[in-house]
Amino acid sequence: MKAKGFTLIELMIVVAIIAILAAIAIPQYQQWKDPKGFAARQAKARAERQNEIAGFRIVNDPQTGCQYISVPGQSLTPRLGTDGKQMCSHAYQ
Questions:
Q1: How many helices (H) does the chain have, and how many strands (E)?
Q2: Is residue 17 a contact partner of residue 33, using CB atoms and an 8 Å limit?
Q3: Which of 9-18, 41-50, 68-77 ranks highest by mean pLDDT?
Q4: What's the rounded Cα separation, in Å, for the pair 19 and 70?
């Protein structure tokens, strides 16, 4: 007749695997559960969303009558025509 159940080695291996997983998971869970960290992540997400919403603006150049889209952190470079004069895709009167 065949004996049913697990050997001591099998049980020890399972306990060791569970201990390793717990050693990794518990600190991660505590960091995720931290209320100050959650508030900071939430504030950062709000700020990033606001930056995406207001990430560009339209600039009117009164000297040339051109309109440009200005993106923060990027320089504003007007296009030049073949005659060396400034071109714009849309002019207002």
A1: 2, 4
A2: no
A3: 9-18
A4: 55
